[in-house]
Amino acid sequence: MANGVIRLARAPGGYRDSLRSYTVWLDGRRVGKIARGNTLEFSVVPGEHGLQLTVDWCSSPLRVIRLADDQTADFYCKPAGAFYEVWRLLANVDQYIDLARAA
Question: I need a surface site. Which of 1, 44, 65, 87 has the fewest CB within 10 A?
Fold first, then answer.
């Protein structure tokens, strides 16, 4: 029985990756894809969960969330850095996508 919610919103702007969806991984399982400007919600059981996004061989950092009963964790994502920072494809591939918990 799921009592918690993880909500993920992707920024509507950002030129880089504007035509590509990010694959969403929750607890090591692929649970969906998120396109620019969209929001997804995942019902989860209380406890610790891992959230990460990928596109090709690049990813976001793994974010670990601990949820209590009836708690919602809001996250947002967007391409990290500026459009011209192509070096991110070769270095810091685990920092290519900005994934942060909303305040």
Answer: 1
pLDDT digits (tens, 9 = 90+) for 41-98: 999 999 999 999 999 989 999 999 999 999 999 999 998 876 666 665 667 788 889 9
Residue range(s) defining the domain that contains residue 46: 4-101
Structure-token match 């391409």, residue found: 79
Q: Residue 17 belongs to a domain with what CATH number?
A: 2.60.40.10
Domain count for the chain = 1
Least confident of 5-9, 26-30, 35-39, 76-80: 76-80
